[in-house]
């Protein structure tokens, strides 16, 4: 690879625009060579604003472009599998947003193809790069709370995404709780072996059309006997609320705070503070750090730290939770070798 990595971003929606802007302005060692979106004007707007040399609606042409060394896939989840396969065939390094795909077979196939081709593919589980989650993982690993016994996570979105997004999202367990399933594996350093999931539509009636829910709870069992619970909600009208806790034999470690700024207001009505409005603000630094690491690893020739095996396992847990919700029973996971 050249000293600066020539990179292309595919998909310039809610998150793709941010990833592309981070690559254009905040990440060292990268040359944002091309941006692509099926909506041609979006790519043109971005390219004009950030002086990107190439912009197009022809996604395949960008993947196959001889000067593009790495692609960042931020398109709707239903398109990930095909784009990853094209990028592997074109011998490009890949960063792909979560989930890697919506079906277990496809996830397994992707992982196999990545391994066979010895391709670089990094999955966008950005919570692993959030300074608080990262520090928690380090402290758990060095034994600060003893042996982990219980994992707890709360993930609440301030509102439900639009219907057009929900349609292709794979439902709440796969679209949203998947972040918690991944961070559970990361913090507990263990595999989830059984899930029992429940859910309901308590606010956004249109979700019923897609058999989706806006309030969910997954009880998880880990291989070493630890357990946990994960709440997923689209109904936090007060703001974006992401927290986790690992209770160990010698203590507990809590991650996440509601306050966006170190700012408290005291007046006759009481004491108040602000709240993160959404994922863009809460994980602003994590989104930069994961792409910095992506580029730095490509420059050094290092392996991916968030692999398609991680992507596959998170999809497996999310699909098991979805089945558990649908069939109202506990579902075991056996992670067949891939
Ligand atoms: N890691 C996170 O925190 C996080 C947050 C949000 C979204 N995501 C993931 O990122 C992906 C995109 O989500 P989003 O919220 O940005 O979606 P979005 O709907 O806002 O944007 C998708 C963009 O892709 C474009 N597009 C559609 N099909 C395309 C194709 N075949 N090729 C190129 N462009 C195409 C659309 O025109 C749109 O601009 C999803 O997989 C989602 O799960 C991850």
From TrEMBL:
Broad enzyme group: oxidoreductase
Keyword annotations of the record: Oxidoreductase
Gene3D superfamilies, alphabetized: Dihydrodipicolinate Reductase, domain 2, NAD(P)-binding Rossmann-like Domain
EC number: 1.1.1.18
Domain Gfo/Idh/MocA-like oxidoreductase N-terminal: 5-125
GO function term, MF aspect, one: inositol 2-dehydrogenase (NAD+) activity
Domain spans labelled Gfo/Idh/MocA-like oxidoreductase C-terminal: 138-333
Annotated family: Belongs to the Gfo/Idh/MocA family.
NCBIfam families: myo_inos_iolG
Protein name stated in the entry: Inositol 2-dehydrogenase
């Amino acid at each position: 690879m050249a000293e600066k990595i020539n990179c292309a971003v595919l998909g310039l929606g809610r998150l793709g625009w941010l990833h592309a802007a981070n690559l254009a302005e905040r990440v060292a060692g990268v040359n944002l060579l091309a941006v692509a979106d099926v909506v041609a004007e979006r790519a043109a707007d971005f390219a004009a604003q950030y002086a990107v040399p190439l912009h197009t609606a022809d996604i395949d042409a960008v993947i196959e472009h001889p000067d593009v060394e790495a692609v960042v896939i931020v398109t709707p989840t239903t398109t990930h599998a095909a784009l990853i396969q094209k990028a592997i065939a074109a011998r490009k390094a890949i960063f792909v947003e979560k989930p890697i795909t919506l079906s277990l077979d496809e996830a397994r196939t992707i992982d196999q193809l990545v391994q066979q081709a010895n391709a670089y593919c990094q999955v966008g589980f950005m919570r692993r790069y959030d300074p608080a989650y990262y520090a928690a993982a380090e402290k758990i690993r060095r034994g600060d709370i003893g042996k982990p016994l219980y994992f707890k996570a709360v993930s609440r979105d301030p509102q439900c995404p639009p219907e057009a997004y929900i349609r292709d999202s794979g439902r709440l367990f796969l679209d949203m709780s998947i972040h918690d399933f991944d961070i559970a594996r990361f913090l507990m350093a263990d595999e989830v072996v059984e899930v029992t999931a429940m859910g309901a539509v308590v606010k956004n009636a249109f979700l019923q059309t897609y058999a989706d829910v806006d309030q969910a709870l997954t009880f998880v069992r880990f291989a070493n006997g630890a357990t946990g619970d994960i709440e997923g909600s689209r109904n936090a009208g007060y703001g974006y609320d992401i927290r986790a806790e690992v209770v160990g034999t010698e203590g507990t470690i809590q991650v996440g705070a509601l306050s966006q700024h170190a700012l408290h207001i005291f007046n006759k009505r009481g004491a108040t503070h602000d709240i993160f409005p959404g994922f863009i603000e809460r994980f602003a630094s994590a989104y930069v750090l994961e792409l910095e690491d992506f580029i730095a690893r490509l420059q050094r020739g290092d392996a991916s730290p968030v692999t398609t095996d991680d992507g596959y396992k998170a999809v497996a847990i999310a699909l098991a939770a979805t089945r558990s919700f649908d069939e109202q029973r506990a579902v075991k996971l056996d992670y067949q070798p891939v």
